[in-house]
Fold this sequence. Notes:
The complex is a heterotetramer, with 2 copies of chain A (374 residues) and 2 copies of chain C (335 residues). Chain A is built from 13 helices and 7 strands. By secondary structure, chain A is of the alpha/beta class. Chain A has a single domain (18-357), classed as Rossmann fold (3-Layer(aba) Sandwich), CATH 3.40.50. Chain C has 335 residues and is of the alpha/beta class. Chain C has 2 domains: 9-198, 3-Layer(aba) Sandwich (Rossmann fold); 206-333, Rossmann fold (3-Layer(aba) Sandwich). Chain C has 12 helices and 14 strands. A 7-stranded mixed β-sheet of chain C has the order 3-2-4-5-7-6-12, sandwiched between helices. A 5-stranded mixed β-sheet of chain C has the order 9-11-10-13-14, with helices on both faces. A two-stranded antiparallel sheet of chain C has the order 1-8. In chain C, helix 8 links the parallel strand 10 and strand 11 (240-244). The mean pLDDT of chain C is 97. Chains C and D meet through helix 4, helix 6 and helix 10 of C and helix 4, helix 6 and helix 10 of D. The complex binds thiamine diphosphate (2 copies) and magnesium ion (MG) (2 copies). One magnesium ion is lined by residues 178-180, 208, 210-211 of chain B. One thiamine diphosphate sits between chains A (88, 148-150, 178-181, 184, 206, 208, 210-212, 273, 277) and D (35, 64, 66, 88, 92, 95).
Amino acid sequence: xxxxxxxxxxxxxxxxxxxxxxxxxxxxxxxxxxxxxxxxxxxxxxxxxxxxxxxxxxxxxxxxxxxxxxxxxxxxxxxxxxxxxxxxxxxxxxxxxxxxxxxxxxxxxxxxxxxxxxxxxxxxxxxxxxxxxxxxxxxxxxxxxxxxxxxxxxxxxxxxxxxxxxxxxxxxxxxxxxxxxxxxxxxxxxxxxxxxxxxxxxxxxxxxxxxxxxxxxxxxxxxxxxxxxxxxxxxxxxxxxxxxxxxxxxxxxxxxxxxxxxxxxxxxxxxxxxxxxxxxxxxxxxxxxxxxxxxxxxxxxxxxxxxxxxxxxxxxxxxxxxxxxxxxxxxxxxxxxxxxxxxxxxxxxxxxxxxxxxxxxxxxxxxxxxxxxx
Amino acid sequence: xxxxxxxxxxxxxxxxxxxxxxxxxxxxxxxxxxxxxxxxxxxxxxxxxxxxxxxxxxxxxxxxxxxxxxxxxxxxxxxxxxxxxxxxxxxxxxxxxxxxxxxxxxxxxxxxxxxxxxxxxxxxxxxxxxxxxxxxxxxxxxxxxxxxxxxxxxxxxxxxxxxxxxxxxxxxxxxxxxxxxxxxxxxxxxxxxxxxxxxxxxxxxxxxxxxxxxxxxxxxxxxxxxxxxxxxxxxxxxxxxxxxxxxxxxxxxxxxxxxxxxxxxxxxxxxxxxxxxxxxxxxxxxxxxxxxxxxxxxxxxxxxxxxxxxxxxxxxxxxxxxxxxxxxxxxxxxxxxxxxxxxxxxxxxxxxxxxxxxxxxxxxxxxxxxxxxx
Amino acid sequence: xxxxxxxxxxxxxxxxxxxxxxxxxxxxxxxxxxxxxxxxxxxxxxxxxxxxxxxxxxxxxxxxxxxxxxxxxxxxxxxxxxxxxxxxxxxxxxxxxxxxxxxxxxxxxxxxxxxxxxxxxxxxxxxxxxxxxxxxxxxxxxxxxxxxxxxxxxxxxxxxxxxxxxxxxxxxxxxxxxxxxxxxxxxxxxxxxxxxxxxxxxxxxxxxxxxxxxxxxxxxxxxxxxxxxxxxxxxxxxxxxxxxxxxxxxxxxxxxxxxxxxxxxxxxxxxxxxxxxxxxxxxxxxxxxxxxxxxxxxxxxxxxxxxxxxxxxxxxxxxxxxxxxxxxxxxxxxx
Amino acid sequence: xxxxxxxxxxxxxxxxxxxxxxxxxxxxxxxxxxxxxxxxxxxxxxxxxxxxxxxxxxxxxxxxxxxxxxxxxxxxxxxxxxxxxxxxxxxxxxxxxxxxxxxxxxxxxxxxxxxxxxxxxxxxxxxxxxxxxxxxxxxxxxxxxxxxxxxxxxxxxxxxxxxxxxxxxxxxxxxxxxxxxxxxxxxxxxxxxxxxxxxxxxxxxxxxxxxxxxxxxxxxxxxxxxxxxxxxxxxxxxxxxxxxxxxxxxxxxxxxxxxxxxxxxxxxxxxxxxxxxxxxxxxxxxxxxxxxxxxxxxxxxxxxxxxxxxxxxxxxxxxxxxxxxxxxxxxxxxx
Lengths: 374, 374, 335, 335
Ligand SMILES: Cc1ncc(C[n+]2csc(CCOP(=O)(O)OP(=O)(O)O)c2C)c(N)n1
Ligand SMILES: Cc1ncc(C[n+]2csc(CCOP(=O)(O)OP(=O)(O)O)c2C)c(N)n1
Ligand SMILES: [Mg+2]
Ligand SMILES: [Mg+2]
């Protein structure tokens, strides 16, 4: 699978030691994780295809190459835990609490159809198509409603678990943040608040090296972003964001720390934004980022990394690994045949639901500014 | 001079080793520093007396017991350096560039009369009495105009030296901040920006253990606030805020670092707020703060500490040290006789100027919203 | 903290206190967060005793982080709490601005009614006390232009209590502009009702003085200036009706319309800068809805378009005053 | 980046670009700071090529820190620079809000004229593009209610260039609301002047279409909706005068008054929420100053008091449209 030179180099660097949590996973857990990586990837490439076909408008913010962060961080959560995803975490909305069964309606995550209805801007989206892309949420499913305002939901995440703790709960909240967004003042205020009150807030940094057109060295001046944690007196962990198991291990460590009452932490997941900031930016990104950097950043595809680990652990044969080769390919280079059929099927049903959902009535635009009942 | 038990205990802890910069000071430098400590203290107690006498209205934010921070940090600055003081640093406005001569009109600091006119709310204040207390400044004197918005001027401080560097200057800026104010988002944004651009911004934290009625453990969760610096990849120093020489050494270290192009740093000066948040808060502060804590916090008066060092260094005799005993006394316990006459004289002239300055004309209230000339 | 002792006259600050203590008492989901509201009891003492009584979990001495304070409160509300946010001075709300207008205010709208944020944001506001630029603001217009927030501004102890209680009970975020110059003005003290009896509905104005010749619409501190101006007008032979709208959003337009039917003349008074302030909003609504009723230009008396300066001559120059209101009303009456 | 080629028609975006490049060229103290304005050239490409041409010292790709961006720019201006701040979308200004209204806007006032902050804050604004709650805002009223700021909103390429240039030259902080839906509308392209010739003074409105029966006052995107509405009105037998005020603060009241002398009827149109929006300000000023001129109620057509929703039917429901303007104007004409 190691096709490019950079990939081969990286492959050699890879150390596949399993951590405290991942070493307890079963073969079927591994298989499930891999399947989820495929699904997250498929979500991404399928939407691009839909847009190319003209079935879809609006900007797409791709999680391509960053799927291990979403999948690995969600895998060990309790159903009662909260999450606060942002623009690059779209699959998280429907992958939360996947362990309860992808199609289980009582699962503490959104249905894939709901999320697709959001992408399509239809009335069956969680917010009835009032705000776009990832700006949805569900208090019933314990997903904080995201907004455009970067880092703007971290205080709410702290508030949600503060309330939960008061009510005797043990919920943890994961907040997802691009590394660039952490320059926001409110990031500081919220993490500091969580530190003071030892709140179970796990701050995941998806350090994909770029914030739109700005490289990290113009955003902050540390090599490991996780060191930001030292400034709050809380733990800061670094995870290999391409390795779903390492993400799982580090996040679970942080979650355990949080759940035991020790407070917040930061988990930096090192990764790389494979394409443009959004799909509108793909062409420009090819100009403002050096090709070598991009090639190197894409080389360790999380699906490929997981396959290598599974082979090494004896959970997969080389032959099986060659079955669905979605890794290392852009949206235009893959077809449905590169994905496990259950993944294609699952998302297709969601899209089916979405396209059959109508637009909201115009009058809804004037509704729900206030709640009327007292 | 070590009168209370706590004082004796602290005295024993005191280590009087001179640092890289203070060890180069002459006897007259020591004398000057001590004189400046007296002056800062006298400013404080005299204003309280003026207010008690009914000559003055408005809240007074006392720097009592924290004077070593102002005096020590300003002592080694170049005239071209900038400062950004806040509510607790009132004497800094006229003590900047004191080395050029207290009464030198070309000095890069405000005249004491101007500052007194500000306290009295008269037209000869730098802002013609438009905003109160420390909310003054002077671009000619390189003092950033403070506002009420805590931490709100740190970005401007970064901007000022960014501009200076572009123009080929080597100015450093000192920003003064209460430890509580650092919880503001804009503190984070500005320090991060300075770190990214390696700007010569020295962030002084006056850690006086309280932010109004809130103790530090509810403001942040570190023992040494200076560790906040680790989160930005910049140096963080701790100074004994009661020892003017230690403040001088640590700030000069930070200034040298900054001036040589290495970038920003944080200098935490550990001190204690001797009285209320403002004089309106004196009575309440006596309730919300444990007496032992207050006694211990007041025990190492910066004037007393400096005298002990001067005696130890042979710059002062025990007898001389007993000359003006202002230390360890509240405003109601001291008289002019407890201060060197030049100090009393200097401030009295300033007050004289202030009380002879008229109020601004009412119509000025409607002026200067915009600059008219193009 | 004594709650609603019958027969005793209470001041404005006590009205606020009683509202808070009663709501804390009756609903265990009520939480307070703000700077120095616990150990100190708030800069003005509005929450004195609250932390002792209800504990540090429900009464949070927050770091100096207005954005996080609002956002944390918003998260609490998202998870079943009713959060009261105290701004130490309403002027400092600017650093929490985004969390109010983009996060909190829009929550119900963008979730299509799923989530209502039951938050109260309150704090000392207004000038006339020599507080200067950053301790005198009336910045309610920023929020009136930000859909999703309700805004009230009580002028009496009973309204302070009743509107604040109503704000707690309302499922939406409600901002309470408290007039700090009225906090301890004993001459406006009055007997307060207890519990549900004390409630004052949001969106209902009140006629403070009846009159025939001109309608003066105002709120907050200026209610008293307008009442004095009405006295002055009387001696000039004009009778002014003074309406205290109390609630800006929603606004009781009918009470103004009713009055205009009688007086056919309108003066609107408030402390905020004139441009895009709430006085202009009232004028604009009435110019449309009551066009035929108006026999004279509807006139505003507001702060000049300046910040609030410090020393008395300057402050008086820019803020509305009894004289300025009287003059404006005379101009309108004599039109 | 080509500057002012004679005879060639340029679009709105190019107008902005030319203004920036010319000002950078002619004054070495001009600096730009914003998110992604350098390597990327800005989200919309307004500053494309600027960093290459003038270097990273003068063109700063800032961290995602709106408050620091404004504050750093303010400090630069305090020390002799002219700083241009780009907000990636004007919606994100909310997180830099305090630095604008309390730090920057008040600087000249609180220093009694010592320091003027020569800052330009500009960014893409406005709806009609499906940008939803956080990429569609017109929040100019917040700043109109914050004394010390000037505010402009150009609707044509020449005004985009000329007002932006004037903003650079003005010693005060000036906010430029750019209509992103107009950025690349080639049908409004026009020939642009160069350098000083291109300047458009702040505070001067312009009559976009002359008429006799009703005055429609507006700015930004809605200029075009109003012109279309004027066509509709013509077919109903009414001739509408359309005024583009271009500059909100300061406001050219005289141009409106002059028009009202002729038409005696007023409709004001803008995109912001109605309550405390700038449309209300214009109505309030005219109700006072032009009371005797008005033969019908002055009417506002604005966004409903809601956020801007995403999908087309919803967005159209809440924003002003040609139809809504036509109807309102007809109501006024037929009054
Ligand atoms: C407060 C705020 N400022 C600016 C933006 C515009 N913006 C949207 S995404 C983005 C870059 C985010 O970079 P990063 O946080 O690293 O996340 P990534 O997109 O790389 O995952 C910017 C500047 C915004 N949404 N919110
Ligand atoms: C943004 C903002 N929020 C709140 C306040 C009110 N306030 C003024 S001083 C103060 C406490 C400051 O504490 P600290 O920073 O530790 O400084 P100290 O007074 O102890 O020197 C507070 C909360 C303010 N001025 N600005
Ligand atoms: Mg990133
Ligand atoms: Mg302090």
